Amino acid sequence: MPDAIEARQLDVGYGGRQTAVKVLTGLDLTVAAGSFLSILGPSGCGKSTLLRVVADLLDPLGGTISVLGETPHTVRSRRDVGFVFQDSTLLPWRTVRDNVRLPLGVGQRSLTRKIEDRSTELLELMGLGGLGERLPHQLSGGQRQRVAIARALLGEPKLLLMDEPFGALDEITRDRLNDELLALWRRTSTTILFVTHSIAEAAYLGERVIVLAANPGRVVKDLDMRPFKQEGNRCKREDPAIVAAMADLRAALERAS
Amino acid sequence: MRQAPLSPQMTVALPVLGAASILLAWQYLLPLLGVPAYIVPTPTAIFGVFQRNFALLMDNLRPTLIEALAGFVIGNLAAVLLAVLFVHSRVLQAAYFPIVLFFNTIPILALSPIIILIFGLGMTPKIVIAAVICFFPTLVNMIRGLDSASDNEHELFRVLSATRSEIFWSLRLPRALPMLFSSLRIASATAVIGAIVGEWIGSDKGLGALIIQATFNYQSDRLYAAIVLSSSLSIALFCIVVLIERRVIRY
User: Fold this and answer.
1) Which of A88, B77, B167, B226 pairs as cysteine with A148 (C-beta 3.0–4.6 A)?
2) pLDDT of B71-90, one tens digit each?
3) Which residue intervals define the domain ABC transporter in the entry (chain A) (predicted)?
């Protein structure tokens, strides 16, 4: 099975090739298929930019990147990638169910496989069973993010990119959604790239955590969390080994800022 | 200190009471102050015109209604179509939007004689004037509305490999609807203004013509009745737009 992501000497920036402001420079990164990678880093280090390159929303300026063994464009066209944004990006005029079903209504032309309407199953799975006919403004922040995750999962993506999805939520809701996300990941073989500002969240969720530094964006810490966790990426937040790993990550983040 | 909100009964009753107090003052106070009836007739005198000359008023309402409605539909439809063209072609927008802007700076009263010269004295020039007056606010609002989807929303559709037409129907158009309806609400009043202005300049039919005839004949009660009818026409169009808006936009 090919790696989920393999980037070599990746340069990424905004603007034209000549005048671009580089956000990531010479990035080397390999992410194994089926793994859960947390990405930490100070603002402007290129965490979200990296997700955008993987999702084929942004072309790299240099270097190479393969996603699931192919180009990001091919993978996006095949709908093998799902994206969850920080703001849930629900369409306010569509009901919860119709938001989840959005991938059935658009982009089908480029698709070779058939996507089943699993909206009912996904709404149940995300604890939104009775809320299908509500409009987004009638939901709490946590419920809205659950809808966004259900929508991203409808196409059964092999790769799920999450850009600070729980950043705007209160701590209790965030913890609950962390557990739900881990349960979901264990049940599927989806690779998850999870960008966050929270060290605790990154350590709790990731099998592996990388810390990016800014100016230029590069990996300054690559921590394998599996030795600190039990099978299935299970751990307790207050476990001393996890707390020690968090301190390690904090030190790296401070150096990176 | 913030005032306590009004009860639902008071929210309905107060505007009714407010209007009634003004009508009462108008009916009894103005004659006492010596304001002559040929300048400001009393509400009962205006109401009397509706009883005596109902057929005349309706005969003149009909062409204005048709012109305003046709102008409303044609002007807004043209604006929506041009906005769609502009947001899909930045080149066209850059080339022609300044010309449309310039066109909009010409006062409608200055433009109306030209339109009448081109289209003659029938209903067509009035419809064109009503359409022109509706066109610009809808065009500007629609361009803004079609461009109002966030970067994340566009990225979501790109991740889903949506086509341009899917992005238009599933994202741009629904995003633009609140702005479209706010300009339609404005257009519901301006379409009537356009039709009446057209009738002032070259017509013997319609509320505009009736206003001009009543003014020159010192029939101020008939003049005021025509004004009330014009205003009622705008309000009716406005209410229809609001009703449709409430059905279409539920969020």
Assistant:
1) A88
2) 999 999 999 999 999 999 99
3) 7-239
Residue with more model confidence, B49 or A216: B49
Which residue on chain B is closest to A72 by alpha carbon?
B159
pLDDT of residue A112: 65
Phi, psi dihedrals of residue B122, rounded to the nearest 5°:
-75, -155
What residue type is B15 in one-letter code? P
Tell me whether B249 touches chain A (CB under 8 Å).
yes
Same domain, B24 and B114: no
Let me know whether B25 and B104 are in one domain: no
A172 within 8 A of A142, measured Cβ to Cβ: no
Q: Are residues B103 and B30 in the same domain?
A: no
Q: Does B76 lie in the same domain as B10?
A: no
Q: Are residues B132 and B203 in the same domain?
A: yes
Place of tokens 């000359």: B53
Domains: count for chain B: 2
Q: How far is A40 from chain B (nearest CA, A)?
A: 21
Are residues B175 and B205 located together in one domain of the fold? yes
- Looking at domain A5-80+158-256, its CATH class is alpha beta
Decide if B155 contacts B98 (C-beta within 8 A): no
Q: What DSSP state is assigned to residue A31? A: E
The answer to whether A75 and A214 are in contact (CB under 8 A) is no
Please provide the size of chain B in residues: 251
Tokens 């920036």 sit at which residue? A13
Q: How far is CA B172 from the centre of its chain?
A: 25
ipTM above 0.95, yes or no: no
Which position has the higher pLDDT, B223 or B104? B223
Mean of pLDDT values over B241-249: 95
pTM value surpassing 0.90:
no
In A, minimum Cα distance to B250 occurs at: A93
What residue spans define the domains of chain A? 5-80+158-256, 88-156
Q: What is the dihedral of CA A43, A47, A51, A54, to 10 degrees?
A: 140
Find the mean pLDDT for residues A227-239.
87
Helices (H), A89-192: 96-100, 102-105, 119-125, 141-154, 171-187
What values do phi and psi take at A208, rounded to 5?
-150, 140
Closest partner residue to B157 (CB to CB) among A52, A106, A135 is A106
Contacting residues of A for B250, CB less than 8 Å apart: 93, 135
Q: How confident is the model at residue B172 (pLDDT cuts 50, 70, 90)?
A: very high
Tokens 């069973």 correspond to what residue? A129
